[in-house]
């Protein structure tokens, strides 16, 4: 990850709620997060943790029964929480921030040709018309790996495979020339081989256009291979954030321990796979203390009483858990996590001997995430395609 001083986008104390049948659901609770130019940030967590709601706040795409109660989203000299209408958002959506959704068939119009749909983005966001617009469409199709662009542009979405349709969705997003690309579960519906191709394509586009990418995913294998930094979400709040290697090799929050322990690669032959007991809290009700406490076998008494603050572990790593408080008793993480931590220490020592850095901004850009994926790859092959759900 490149070294940055000023964030590209800064979220502070964001609280977002929905009104549903006379009740209020507190979907996002005091979210604070910085996104830096050119980085790949992955947001992970089980279903219902608030990942998609959070990124939709960045584009004003949440349902009409949702609203920002407090907080700010600073981007491009504006507070995005103050934008209310589609007209207010027109200079942000697509032009500055674009999104790739997990199911391309819900993103593409089945009644319009592929070329028409890409050309629409070209006209709106690049200002091109006629022959110039068509030429741009063919160029973008080639960029995303679709051969014979003139013929393919005349075809409809149902004539493409799942992987090809996802390439088209990426092409539409790139036709907008955004600064930030949000990828919401971009490989969920694809097989492992196609997943790798799509992730490679996104990385290629990121490098070529100096994009900042935000990945939303359950797949920790995807995270290990693409992310510079990871933010772990649970029950509408960020419970841990750090570099990819820090979160994989030195996780501090018990929920992060549980997610990593759920990896099939870390299972022991003949023994049941690890699963997280219980269910997330009901966000229609006030959450007291640490939201993960009822599911955490190592919870402290204070976890049920008082919500922990964010504790800094390093300059790039922090976690919302009382276990980091100097007054807390020593609690060892699960065996799987201890094994990952030892593996991390070995890699740190190796990196030091080679004169490189494992953690943080000084690590070579091409190595970011590679070390994190190494440990989970060792047990049973590649981590790509692994899904860890709570």
Task: Please give a quick description of this structure.
With 390 residues, the protein is an alpha/beta fold. It is built from 13 helices and 12 strands.
Summarize the topology.
Layout: E1 9-20, E2 23-35, E3 40-44, H1 51-57, E4 66-75, E5 78-79, H2 86-89, E6 97-100, H3 104-107, H4 114-126, H5 130-143, H6 149-152, H7 162-175, E7 180-184, H8 192-209, E8 212-217, H9 220-226, E9 229-234, E10 237-243, H10 244-249, H11 254-261, E11 311-312, E12 318-319, H12 335-353, H13 370-380
Parallel strand pairs: 3-8, 3-9, 6-7, 7-8
Antiparallel strand pairs: 1-2, 1-4, 4-5, 9-10, 10-12, 11-12
| Rg computed from alpha carbons, rounded to a whole number of angstroms | 21 Å
Helix content: 25-40%
Structural class, from secondary structure content? alpha/beta
Largest sheet: 8 strands, mixed
The fraction of residues in strands falls at 15-25%
Verbal overview:
The protein is α/β, with parallel strands linked by helices. It is 33% helix and 19% strand. It is built from 13 helices and 12 strands. It has helices spanning 51-57, 86-89, 104-107, 114-126, 130-143, 149-152, 162-175, 192-209, 220-226, 244-249, 254-261, 335-353, 370-380, and strands at 9-20, 23-35, 40-44, 66-75, 78-79, 97-100, 180-184, 212-217, 229-234, 237-243, 311-312, 318-319. It has an 8-stranded mixed sheet with strand order 6-7-8-3-9-10-12-11, sandwiched between helices. The protein has a 4-stranded antiparallel sheet with strand order 2-1-4-5, with no helix packed on it. Strand 9 and strand 10 (237-243) form a beta hairpin. It is globular, with a radius of gyration of 21 Å. The model is unreliable at 359-390 (pLDDT under 50).
């Amino acid at each position: 990850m490149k070294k940055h001083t000023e964030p590209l986008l800064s979220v502070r104390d964001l609280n977002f709620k929905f009104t549903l049948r006379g009740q209020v659901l507190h979907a996002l609770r005091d979210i604070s997060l910085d996104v830096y130019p050119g980085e790949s940030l992955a947001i992970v967590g089980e279903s219902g943790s608030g990942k998609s709601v959070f990124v939709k706040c960045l584009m004003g795409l949440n349902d009409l029964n949702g609203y920002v109660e407090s907080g700010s989203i600073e981007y491009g000299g504006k507070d995005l929480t103050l934008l209310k209408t589609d007209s207010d958002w027109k200079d942000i959506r697509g032009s500055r921030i674009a999104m790739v959704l997990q199911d391309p068939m819900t993103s593409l119009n089945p009644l319009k040709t592929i070329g028409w749909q890409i050309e629409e983005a070209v006209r709106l966001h690049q200002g091109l018309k006629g022959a110039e617009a068509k030429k741009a469409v063919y160029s973008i199709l080639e960029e995303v790996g679709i051969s014979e662009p003139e013929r393919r542009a005349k075809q409809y979405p149902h004539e493409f495979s799942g992987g090809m349709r996802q390439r088209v969705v990426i092409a539409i997003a790139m036709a907008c020339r955004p600064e930030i690309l949000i990828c919401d579960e971009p490989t969920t519906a694809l097989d492992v081989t196609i997943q790798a191709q799509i992730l490679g394509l996104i990385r290629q586009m990121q490098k070529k256009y100096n994009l900042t990418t935000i990945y939303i995913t359950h797949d920790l294998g995807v995270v290990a291979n693409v992310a510079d930094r990871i933010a772990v979400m649970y029950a509408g709040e960020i419970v841990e954030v750090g570099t990819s290697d820090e979160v994989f090799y030195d996780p501090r929050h018990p929920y992060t321990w549980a997610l990593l322990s759920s990896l099939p690669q870390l299972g022991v032959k003949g023994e049941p796979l690890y699963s997280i007991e219980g269910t997330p809290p009901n966000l229609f009700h006030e959450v007291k203390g640490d939201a993960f406490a009822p599911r955490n076998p190592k919870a402290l008494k204070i976890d049920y009483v008082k919500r922990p603050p964010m504790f800094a572990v390093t300059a790039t790593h922090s976690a919302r858990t009382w276990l980091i408080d100097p007054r807390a008793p020593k609690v060892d993480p699960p065996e799987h996590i201890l094994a990952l931590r030892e593996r991390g220490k070995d890699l740190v020592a190796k990196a030091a001997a080679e004169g490189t850095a494992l953690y943080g901004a000084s690590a070579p850009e091409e190595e970011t995430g590679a070390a994190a994926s190494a440990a989970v790859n060792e047990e049973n092959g590649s981590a790509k395609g692994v899904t860890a759900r709570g």
